[in-house]
Structure formats: structure tokens, C-alpha cells
Design goal:
The protein is about 35% helix and about 20% strand. It is α/β, with parallel strands linked by helices. Helix 6 (about 175-185) packs across helix 7, helix 7 packs parallel to helix 8 and helix 11 (about 310-320) runs parallel beside helix 12 (about 350-375). The termini are far apart.
């Protein structure tokens, strides 16, 4: 096992950073190592990370095991105390080449922390991941993440991530554009902009840029980029310019993934979210008025403290009312140190049952969504042999032996995928 193996948990941002970790570890000459990039969003994510660490040691007894990510940043000593772990890196240190250089004795320095920063250096400390890294299937990476924002200034009552990621800070537009050009030159067809609080982009920059302004400039300055997609958006922060770009630029994909968390106004207030139910519905309605082909995704939390059946029903009904076809459901997990962890809890079995009901509702909306697409045509990006992704995000079963972006007619549904054939 000469090259480091990266095991990633959690969000798209972690996936992006795992590619930076791969390059940093390679530049440092690290070999025979397993790097676990953890998540702290839920207790289950942390449990799975610890399980992966123990399994890695059993399967690779001679490998160096390095643990990093949000869980390791919040509780470094907990992971350093695991006998399987050789080194712990926080979220700043994990992006730096020097963190992976050999140490005289890992036992004398089990935890390595990056320097505190207030600029954007930690966000863009290394070039963006290049096409072909970890893509598999013999194709260059067709779709890649580009981190443009880090940290969060909000304090939702359930969320521990701001304590692991720090204050909101943005990558300057010029740096984003330079990275995007590198990625396109390496064969990337679709770039997904990502961040912890993506719609907060630019508030900390001297010119107070916005996400809409960044998208407009990126598409103008990188004309060879075929497709731009946005990751999770806060419906309360979508700026006016982003709506203009969304309506007028076909290269910005007709797909919005919204950070909703709940569909009941009182629960949203107790979560300390900045939108209400009406705002969520209006966001989906506005997107489809501008581009009728738009698909909506969302995050929802099941079983937030104090949630009764009527409150939960408001969230459940929201799935169908908004037409949320790509639903991420998180059973509520108390995070020590957050205000929600001190609120009256919903019984664990009720949390699981409500999460299952939400997932079932999402599956029903997705099935309806896919059926409505049958008989239409669309552009599909081939991500690996036989599998592509439509501009409205649906995965598509494609003919083998094609690459790039191809126009297809959708002829049927196979599970949670469309079936496509090349259009005449």
C-alpha cells in the first residue's frame, strides 16, 4: 500500500478537502498510510469514523493512521487516545504539506494543529484538485468540487460545525477563477462550488462580493467551462444577482439544494434558522418560474427536540408541497455544547421512525419526478462508463462507450435513475 488511502466521511466540502489531503500527502512523500477525514454532524458519523479507524488497523497493522476532519478538530485528544491512531490533524493542519512530513517520534506529538488564521489562506492553501484524481472507471474526472468558502458566522442551535470550521471566510474571485481554469484545462466538464455556508460568500471580502457575482464572473471568465453547479444554499441568503444569473445562464445547472432543516415555523425558530416555511416554498416556486426544469433538493432533520407530531407533519408535508426530489434526511443527533442538546429530546425510536417517513416521502417525490422526465430530452454528463448525470441532477443509465456531455432522450426509469439513449 505505497500511496496513502483516504477514508472520507461527511459533506461535499470534506470530499473536496480529501483531494487536497491526497495531494499534500503525496507532495510530502507519505507512503503506507491511511488518512481518516472525519465528520462531526452526527454522533453516528463519529461512531462510523471510529469503527473505520479500528478496521483500518486490523487490516493494515503496519500502516500509519492519521485522523483529521471536524470530529478530530473538536476532540483531538479523544482520537489521539485511540491506540490505533498515530497522528491527529485539525482542519487547518490537514491542508498543509508539512503536516505529512515524517516526525522523529509521533508519540511525542500526536496532535498537530494549524496556525490560527483570519484570512483565506487556509481555504486555498493548495491548488484545486485536478481531473483524473480518484475518478475510477478509466475516464478523467468529469465533475469536481471547488471550495470557495469556509466556516460559518451563524449559530444554529443544533450545529457544532462552526466550532470546528471557524468564522466565515471566502476565497477571492481571482483565485477561484484561476483554480477553475486549471480544472477545465485538465478535462473537468462540471464544477460544483462548495462551502460550509456557501450563500455567505463574499461578505468578508473588501468588495463584499456575492455568490451571484462570483458565479457571473466565473462563467464569463472561464468560457470553456460547460457546466457550473451550486452545492447547499441557505434560502434566506440567496442574493438578487444569483437569481439573475440562474434565470439567464444555461451553464448554471437548474438544480437547487436548499438547507431547510425543518418545515415547521416554531421548530425553525428553535433551530435559530433565518427562514420560515413560506420562504422555503417561495424559493422553490421562484426557481421553477424562472426555469421550469429546475429540480429541488433539501436537507431535513427528523426528531429535533420538542418536535411533536403536528410539527413533524409540517416538515413531512413540505416534501410534497415543494417537490423535493433529492432529499437528505438527518435523524437528530445531540451535539454536546450546542443549545439544542439541552432541549427536551424526542424519543430515539420516534426519531428513527420520523426519519424513515421523511425518506419514504422523498422517494415518492423522486419517483414522480423521474416519471415526468420520461419522453423528454436533456444534456447528460458522462461521469463513468454507463452512468451520467442530467443537468437537473438525476443520475442516468447511459450507453457504454461514450464520454463528455451528450444529448439524450430519457426512455424509462430504472430504480432511482433515468434510462437514456442518444438523441438523434
Amino acid at each position: 500500500m505505497p500511496a496513502p488511502e483516504i477514508i472520507t466521511f461527511g459533506c461535499r466540502l470534506n470530499a473536496f478537502e480529501s483531494e487536497i489531503i491526497r495531494r499534500a500527502a503525496g507532495a510530502a512523500g507519505l507512503e503506507a498510510a491511511i488518512i481518516v477525514n472525519t465528520c462531526a454532524v452526527t454522533g453516528e458519523a463519529e461512531r462510523q469514523a471510529r469503527q473505520a479507524i479500528r478496521r483500518a488497523r486490523r487490516e493494515h497493522p503496519d500502516a500509519r493512521i492519521i485522523v483529521t476532519g471536524c470530529a478530530a478538530t473538536l476532540a483531538p485528544q479523544r482520537y489521539a487516545a485511540m491506540p490505533e491512531v498515530d497522528r491527529v490533524l485539525d482542519n487547518e493542519a490537514k491542508l498543509r504539506v508539512e503536516s505529512y512530513l515524517p516526525l522523529a517520534s509521533t508519540s511525542t506529538l500526536p496532535c498537530l494543529q494549524g496556525e490560527e488564521t483570519t484570512d483565506t489562506g487556509a481555504v486555498a492553501s493548495l491548488p484545486a484538485p485536478q481531473a483524473g484524481e480518484g475518478s475510477g472507471g478509466g475516464l478523467p474526472r468529469a465533475r469536481a468540487y471547488l471550495q470557495v468558502q469556509q466556516g460559518c458566522d451563524h449559530r444554529c442551535t443544533f450545529c457544532i460545525i462552526p466550532y470546528a470550521r471557524g468564522a466565515s471566510r471566502s476565497v477571492p474571485p481571482g483565485t477561484v477563477i484561476a483554480h477553475a481554469r486549471e480544472m477545465v484545462a485538465d478535462g473537468v466538464y462540471e464544477i460544483v462550488l462548495t462551502g460550509v455556508d456557501l450563500t455567505a460568500y463574499g461578505a468578508d471580502l473588501p468588495d463584499r462580493s456575492t455568490l451571484g457575482g462570483l458565479a457571473r464572473r466565473l462563467l464569463a471568465d472561464v468560457p470553456d467551462l460547460p457546466r457550473l453547479r451550486l452545492s447547499s444554499l441557505d434560502p434566506s441568503e440567496i442574493d438578487d444577482e444569483l437569481w439573475v444569473v440562474f434565470a439567464s445562464e444555461p451553464r448554471l445547472m437548474p438544480h437547487l439544494h436548499l438547507s431547510l432543516q425543518a418545515g415547521d415555523d416554531l421548530i425553525l425558530k428553535r433551530m435559530k434558522r433565518r427562514h420560515n416555511r413560506a420562504r422555503a416554498l417561495d424559493t422553490a416556486r421562484r426557481a421553477r418560474q424562472l426555469r421550469r426544469e429546475t429540480a429541488i433538493g433539501a436537507d431535513l432533520i427528523a426528531g429535533f427536540p420538542t418536535e411533536d407530531e403536528a410539527m413533524f407533519r409540517n416538515s413531512l408535508d413540505l416534501v410534497a408541497e415543494m417537490g423535493i426530489s433529492y432529499l437528505h434526511v438527518f435523524p437528530y443527533s445531540p451535539r454536546p455544547g450546542t443549545p439544542a442538546a439541552r432541549m427536551p429530546a424526542v424519543a430515539p425510536e420516534m426519531v428513527r421512525e420520523r426519519a424513515a417517513r421523511l425518506r419514504a416521502a422523498g422517494a415518492e417525490v423522486l419517483a414522480d419526478e423521474l416519471r415526468t422526465r420520461v419522453g423528454t430530452t436533456g444534456d447528460v454528463l458522462i461521469e463513468k462508463p454507463g452512468v451520467g448525470r442530467a443537468d437537473f441532477y438525476a443520475p442516468v443509465v447511459c450507453p457504454v462507450g461514450i464520454a463528455g456531455i451528450r444529448r439524450m432522450r430519457f426512455t424509462g426509469v430504472a430504480g432511482d435513475r433515468l434510462v437514456g439513449e442518444l438523441a438523434a
